[in-house]
Amino acid sequence: MKIALTGASGLIGTQLMDALLRDGHELTQFSRPNSAPAASKASGVDAGAAASVVRRASWDPSRKLIDSSALEGIDAVIHLAGVGIADSRWTPQQKDRILTSRTLGTSLLATALAAMDQPPAVLLSGSAIGYYGEHGDEILDESGTPGSDFTARVCIDWEAAAQPAVDAGIRVALLRTGIVQSTEGGALAKQLPFFKLGLGGKVGSGKQYISWISIEDEVRAIQFLLTHELAGAVNLTAPEPVTNAEYTKILGGVLHRPTTILPITGPRLLFGKELADSLLLTSSRVVPAALLEAGFTFSYPELEPALAALLA
Fold it and tell me: Residue 270: how many CB atoms within 10 A of its CB?
């Protein structure tokens, strides 16, 4: 299959690119004109062979520029690009960068695809479980109502930006990704040094839900969606979300380290109150109903085996 990919240098994109190359797909990697393309580290794929099946194409969403010719002959598009939600404090300028990096890129890509005489059959477009916002212990499938905080508003606008592709008859799946568990980046990588020192702990009441997914299942789920006829919102989370207290206990147990109770004041000072509270106190109990109904099987449906495998 010939696949176009944005966001190839991110945590998910890097792992996904490697998996797609191992499976023998041809990739076109969209990146900004002056940025270095993401390099594959795929085991079992010769570097020279990888270079021969990874093309580079240029786009610049902020200037509404895209090399549309690079989309000709493409079978599927996977769109993951966007500024990291927790890269820095949420100043008004940073919040604008987070929003526009998602909406402008998605709109540019969806509009370019819609204008093609023979567009790709499928667009897998990034989103996140931030769409749901605060819902306490309510179980949320893809029909769950959206939240009203900043991350929810970002996700709502992000998903809406893909509408031109939907209107053009392209199958569009919106990837509502949970908290990806990986030692290469994301929340787990940031917490590990503290937990290894015995300084990790639950935050707040510990009752808030964490809807997580292993990096392996995240990549496998995206590959699954390439060939299975799912459209609209798809939750990319493990079937068994856990509370913050449960997560703390399990991670401490896997590392054989004690855990404690952490005051929220430290993260609020470091990241600002809005970002810290959004990351650590918002409760979204999300389940992958669409994936399960379509027959997807998780390698790691439960957290403890997932963390044990990652940290072995």
Answer: 10
CATH number corresponding to 2-181+212-237+286-296: 3.40.50.720
**Cα dihedral sign for 78, 83, 84, 85?**
negative
Q: What is the pLDDT along the chain (312 residues), one digit of tens a residue?
A: 999 999 999 999 999 999 999 999 999 999 988 766 666 554 455 554 454 468 999 999 999 999 999 999 999 999 999 999 988 899 999 999 999 999 999 999 999 999 999 999 999 999 999 999 999 999 999 999 999 999 999 999 999 999 999 999 999 999 999 999 999 999 999 899 999 999 999 999 999 999 999 999 999 999 999 999 999 999 999 999 999 999 999 999 999 999 999 887 777 877 788 988 888 899 999 999 999 999 999 999 999 999 999 999
Is the alpha carbon torsion for 94, 236, 123, 143 positive or negative? Answer: negative
Q: Name residue 66's amino acid.
A: I
Domain ranges of the chain: 2-181+212-237+286-296
- Which residues partner with 127 through β-bridges? 176
User: What does the block give as tokens for 261?
Assistant: 């109770």
Residue with tokens 């940073």: 94
Locate 179 and state its tokens: 């908290």
Q: How far apart are CA 79 and CA 59, in angstroms?
A: 12
Q: Which of 83, 82, 166, 74 is nearest to 126 (CA)?
A: 82
Within 8 A by CB and 6+ apart from 87, the residues are: 94
